[in-house]
Amino acid sequence: MFSARPFCTAIMLMLPLIWGGAAAAEEDNMPQPEDVLRRRALNGEVEAQLELGQEFFLGKNRKKNPVLACYYFKQASDSGSPEGMFNYAVCCEQGLGTEKNLPLAFMLYKRAAAKGLAAAEFQAGRFLLIGVPDHRDEDHDYPGTPANREEAEKYFRSAAAKNFIPAANELALLELGFSSGSDTEITGEDKS
Fold first, then answer.
1. 77: Cα separation from own chain's centroid
2. Three-state secondary structure of 21-64
3. Tens digits of residue pLDDT in 21-71
4. How far is residue 116's CA from residue 2's CA, in Å, rounded to a whole number?
5. Could you tell me the CA-to-CA distances from 48 to 28, 80, 125 in Å, in that order?
């Protein structure tokens, strides 16, 4: 004779496991904070694109991924954000998450500088001190830019007027006949 009682007891004992599993599955499907941020970024919200790009760039709240960081910075840049332009330029200058492209980085720094971003003014000035080589890839030819100290100083002055200390330091070095010029060496003329 079959008794339903042991069968029902077994089902009752398994319900928390079944419901717990369902609850866990629901939690997996529920939007997580980073998913909400990603959704906002993919919907074109510039602040979300910048934040998500920073998180991927720094490895904060998610696994470090320079390719995705560069992607989100480019999205913000394409939307006209000076911070997006600056961050995308850094990626292009360093070859982080994209091919290294100094003329494109310089162009982006100048665009961000035109919108008043002091750090971009400094970077544009730095590029102008040393000049920018030509760059060619499969899709584009990017012309280089010769060194131009006078133009560089204009960018440094503008950034220094916004209290951007590295620009003020660079101006002081130029006045003394020195320049950091590149990230690797300090150059100067012997005044003796």
1. 10
2. HHHHHHHHHCCCHHHHHHHHHHCCCHHHHHHHHHHHHHCCCCCC
3. 434 434 444 445 548 999 999 999 999 999 999 999 999 999 999 999 999
4. 83
5. 22, 14, 29
For the chain, the average pLDDT equals 82
Quickly tell me which residue has 């599955």 as its tokens.
25
* Burial of residue 65 (number of CB atoms within 10 Å: 0-12, 13-18, 19+): middle
- Residue 97 carries which side chain, given as an amino acid letter? G
How far apart (Å, rounded) are the C-alpha atoms in residues 82 and 111? 7
Measure CA 96 to chain center: 9
DSSP 80-119: T-HHHHHHHHHHHHHTSSS---HHHHHHHHHHHHHTT-HH
Question: What whole-number distance in Å separates Cα of residue 10 and Cα of residue 17?
Answer: 11
Helices 102-114, 82-94: crossing angle, 10 deg rounding: 160
Share of the chain above pLDDT 90, in %: 67
